Amino acid sequence: MLSHLLHLQGIDSVVLESKPREYIESRIRAGVLEHGTVQLMVQSGVGARLQREGLVHTGVELRFNGAAHRIDFADLTGKSITIYPQHEVVKDLVAARLARGGKIIFAAEAMSVHDFDKGATGSSPKIRFQHGGATEALECDFIAGCDGFHGICRPAMPAATLRVHEREYPFGWLGILAKVPPASEELIYCYHDRGFALLSMRSPEISRLYLQCAHDENLDGWSDDRIWTELRTRFATRDGWELRDGPILQKGVTPMRSFVAEPMRQGKLFLLGDAAHIVPPTGAKGLNLAVADVRVLTRALVDFYKRGSSNELDRYSDVCLRRVWKVQRFSWWMTSMLHRFPNEDSFSHNVHLAELDYVTGSRAASTALAENYVGLPFDEETKPD
Ligand code: DHB
Question: How distant is the alpha carbon of residue 359 from its chain centre?
Answer without folding.
Answer: 23
